[in-house]
């Protein structure tokens, strides 16, 4: 024991003599940590006498075993000095490599964890079709933070808190997204009807033909086209339909079931030319026969017959609208017609000035037809009668319109009521507009009379009276 203490005292004294009291104290500190004095001295030389860095270097294995020989007398030879410099450079290189390796390891581990979390999240989103989310793009992806190299060249060590935070983020990402309420989940026993395109060709053709019943021109046009293809399948123009054609656009293209019927007949759309084309090898005589038979059957239906009557009526309304005063002024009016209209206007009360009375609108035919010249309007007082309105219409459109309204071939309907019901112009001709519910807002339409009304029947009015002072519905029947 005494010998050991003596040896330590001599060693300490030698270090103090050789390296000075400051470095000797640092060597004793490293020696007390269990490092060899010779290795401690080389580590201090490599770290500019920094004890903490020297200790880290010794822990990393940078012991500098190729140390230069020491002269106890304090004399260093020139070769020994050069070797000390090489050892210091070697130790610096070892520390730099250790720091870079530690940083690379930490960054690689973080990158692997992020990739695993992202792959797990994408897999869950792909498997759960009801909870699809857009994949991360370059615009919304958070850019990775750039690590700054530590200035003191110490290895970066991840704290326990950072590790736990990363694990928690990965766990949240791996959790499955909550399922949305879909029709299969909320109504598991509900069965949706099968799509029309999945049904047989025969059923597609019949259902499309039934949808076309109220559209007279669409039925007639398609029947003419299919008949031409059946009779002359080799003629290309019969098998090609221009979707930009004005008549096709007006009467066929937007009608429900029209183009679906053609597609069921093996027509195909050509987007480049905006055409419907039936290739010669796709012509099926059985489908053509079925389509033609279905359309001919639709022409015998009540809906088709009623629509055909309305089409003829709108053609009459177009002709009557061309006889309006403004149109006849341009084209010329006979003296007889001029006298008739002037007589009607002489029986019509003077129009109230602006700010008095209310505007009454009259439309020829259905408003959806938008017949040119088929809309007129003027102001009336509340005590003006329905007969005054007839005189005004006679002055605008002539005697024919008034005669057919009185004969009930056509009817004057109150468009503000629902359902629309005709007014008996002969029975209520002397009634005021306020009594009939046409004041202060009146909207009348000239429509085709139903068979029952034309034969002298009455119409049941539904709902309550329109406006203050208007008659009840029972009084108007």
User: Radius of gyration from the CA trace?
Assistant: 50 Å
Tell me about the largest β-sheet. Answer: 5 strands, mixed
**Widest sheet, order of strands:** 5-4-8-6-7
**How widely separated are the two ends?**
135 Å
Element-by-element helix/strand order? HHHHHHHHHEHHEEHHHHEEHHEEEHH
What spatial form do the alpha-carbon principal axes imply? elongated
Mean pLDDT: 79
Which class of secondary structure composition applies to the elements? alpha+beta
- Identify low-pLDDT runs: 64-81
Characteristics of this structure?
8% strand, alpha+beta, 3-stranded antiparallel β-sheet, 477 residues, 5-stranded mixed β-sheet, 8 strands
Question: What would you note in describing this structure?
Answer:
- By secondary structure, the protein is an alpha+beta fold.
- 51% of the residues lie in helices and 8% in strands.
- The protein has helices spanning 2-19, 21-32, 37-46, 51-59, 78-127, 160-174, 183-186, 201-211, 216-231, 246-253, 258-264, 285-298, 302-321, 325-331, 335-347, 386-397, 399-406, 451-454, 473-476, and strands at residues 240-242, 268-270, 275-277, 358-364, 375-380, 410-414, 421-423, 442-448.
- The strands form two sheets. Strands 5-4-8-6-7 form a five-stranded mixed β-sheet.
- Strand 6 and strand 7 form a beta hairpin.
- Helix 2 packs across helix 3 (37-46) and helix 3 crosses helix 4 (51-59).
- It is elongated and about 140 Å long.
- Mean pLDDT is 79; it is low at 64-81.
Briefly characterize the structure:
The protein contains 19 helices and 8 strands. With 477 residues, the chain is an alpha+beta fold.
